[in-house]
Design goal:
- It is a single chain.
- The protein has about 475 residues and is α/β, with parallel strands linked by helices.
- It has 3 domains: about 20-95, Arc Repressor Mutant, subunit A (Orthogonal Bundle); about 125-375, Type I PLP-dependent aspartate aminotransferase-like (Major domain) (Aspartate Aminotransferase, domain 2), CATH 3.40.640.10; about 380-480, Aspartate Aminotransferase, domain 1.
- It has 15 helices and 14 strands.
- The chain has helices at about 20-30, 45-50, 55-65, 90-95, 105-110, 135-150, 165-175, 195-205, 220-225, 275-285, 340-355, 360-370, 375-395, 425-430, 460-480; strands at about 40, 70-75, 80, 185-190, 210-215, 230-240, 240, 255-260, 290-295, 320-325, 335-340, 415-420, 440, 450-455.
- The protein has an 8-stranded mixed sheet with strand order 4-11-10-9-8-5-6-7, sandwiched between helices. A 3-stranded antiparallel sheet has the order 1-3-2.
- Strand 2 (about 70-75) and strand 3 form a beta hairpin.
- The radius of gyration is 31 Å and the shape is elongated.
Length: about 475
């Protein structure tokens, strides 16, 4: 009697053996080297008997593995594991060849983690909205209503420019609260201010053009312009904002300047009127764009929100970027840009190449939230909330003044910068503390002798604020001593 030939096939761990079980078992055995290259397999008749299944099933499995290149079959010779799978064996994988590394530009941009929000909110990494104060039940009701009004259109593609209802609602909000006069046709919706900056950089900058920025500055904006291939020209910021007259670049390739005039990021200062006018004059002379990022200009706890730079512009050079994620909640993913109408369609086309569009349900829900007065009420309430947190923080940090620290006086936003003239001392305090403290120097282009600590408090509760403030003061006092 002829004895069966071929390797022993691995068992299938299933109560009822199916075709897929046999296929996955044999494929895994080939890939992990259990069935090595050039080993002969038993006939389909023998394999079917071993597995207790039909021969037809084994013929189908062998045929598929052969088609994929794992097996080789020849009439009169039998079925073998293909020799080429030796390249996929564990020993081959353990000795990888030389891999290409990421580009220098990619490594530089990837090293910038300042825009990445922490998984755990603690002092002082919490620069996002305080969601404990958000009117969740109202939002839920409006989301249900938005889904009902959209109907099956909810499942389709949405306009990359944004829903008309939301663009109109944002236009009304900007006119009422920020003094900005624009048509809804000038508003384009994005998921975030970062995405808007990226799209603007791609649209407006050629590789090799220069982008003029504040120093220190928002790292996300710098990343957006560098990704577009632009060079960075940085000018220092003092207590009156970006230094314009003495530091304005003269290069004809400086196509764009990025500023945060109402509440500079990260120093917190506001640009005065004289420098705003000088900046607009520079843009007009050089036919350059001014990108105004008003990321938390609405959260001024004393008096009215400062007038936007856009409102002073008579030459249509200012492009205004704002976000609703700071005012509402982080996962909303709604931001916007106000641009001349001739830029809207090009930006929409670029938007479709980035991520297509923003979900219609969130847009319509936000439009209803704004049109029915809930947004303005929420903003007023949150100004009080953040103002109280800022006051608590300032009071707790007051002892730092005796140690030579400087605290800003611009009552706005969700962060606070405390600085000191001796940079080594600041860095020692940060290293000695268990708090999450961002250094001002990490936001700078040019080095200076001093440094500071960037304290983000928006999402912190009162207990966390007090505990974090007390630890920071204690650490600064101990290190100084």
């Amino acid at each position: 009697m002829r004895r069966p030939q071929g390797a022993f096939l691995p068992s299938v761990s299933a109560a009822r053996v199916r075709r897929g079980d046999v296929y996955r078992t044999l494929r895994a055995a080939v890939l992990d080297g259990t069935l090595p290259p050039r080993v002969r397999l038993p006939s389909t008749r023998q394999a079917a008997a071993d597995y207790g299944v039909s021969r037809g099933m084994l013929e189908e499995v062998f045929a598929q593995l052969t088609e994929e290149g794992f097996l080789e079959r020849a009439v009169g010779r039998g079925t073998y594991v293909a020799s080429t799978v030796s390249r996929l064996s564990p020993s081959a994988k353990a000795k990888p060849g030389r891999r290409r590394s990421a580009s220098r530009r990619g490594q530089r941009v990837a090293a910038n983690a300042a825009c990445r929000e922490p998984n755990l909110v603690r002092p002082f990494n919490a620069g996002t909205a305080d969601t404990s104060e958000f009117p969740w039940r109202i939002w839920q009701r409006l989301q249900v209503r938005a889904a009902r009004e959209l109907g099956q259109a909810l499942l389709n593609f949405a306009d990359p420019r944004g829903l008309p209802q939301l663009r109109e609602a944002i236009g009304r909000y900007l006119a009422q609260f920020r003094g900005i006069r624009c048509s809804s046709e000038q508003v384009i919706i994005f998921n975030s201010a970062q995405q808007a900056l990226h799209a603007l950089a791609v649209l407006l900058l050629e590789r090799g053009d220069a982008a003029w920025m504040e120093d220190p500055c928002y790292p996300g904006a710098r990343a957006a312009f560098e990704l577009a291939g632009a060079g960075i020209l940085a000018s220092p910021v003092d207590d009156k904002g970006l230094r314009v007259d003495t530091r304005a670049p003269r290069s004809t390739r400086t196509r764009l300047v990025y500023v945060t005039p109402s509440h500079q990021y990260p120093t917190g200062v506001a640009m005065n009127l004289e420098r705003r006018i000088a900046l607009l004059d520079w843009a007009a002379r050089n036919h350059s764009w001014v990108v105004e990022d008003d990321y938390d200009g609405e959260f001024r706890s004393e008096g009215q929100a400062l007038t936007a730079l856009y409102s002073f512009d008579t030459q249509a050079r200012v492009l205004y970027v704002g976000t609703l994620n700071k005012a509402m909640f982080p996962s909303l993913r709604l931001a916007y840009a106000v641009v001349p109408e001739e830029l809207v369609e090009p930006l929409a086309n670029i938007r479709t190449q980035l991520d297509g569009f923003t979900a219609a349900a969130a847009q319509l829900g936000m439009a209803l939230f704004m049109d029915e007065g809930y947004f303005s009420s929420h903003l007023r309430r949150m100004r009080v909330v953040y103002g109280a947190k800022l006051a608590m923080l300032m009071e707790g940090l007051a002892p730092l003044a005796a140690l030579g620290w400087t605290l800003p006086r611009n009552p706005a936003g969700m962060h606070l910068l405390v600085s000191h003239g001796t940079g080594d001392y600041v860095r020692t305090v940060a290293a000695a503390s268990s708090l999450e403290l961002a250094l001002l120097s990490s936001y700078r282009v040019a080095r200076t002798s001093g440094d500071g600590l960037f304290l983000r408090f928006g999402a912190l509760d009162a207990a966390s604020l007090r505990a974090g403030t007390a630890e920071l003061v204690a650490t600064a006092t101990q290190v100084k001593a």
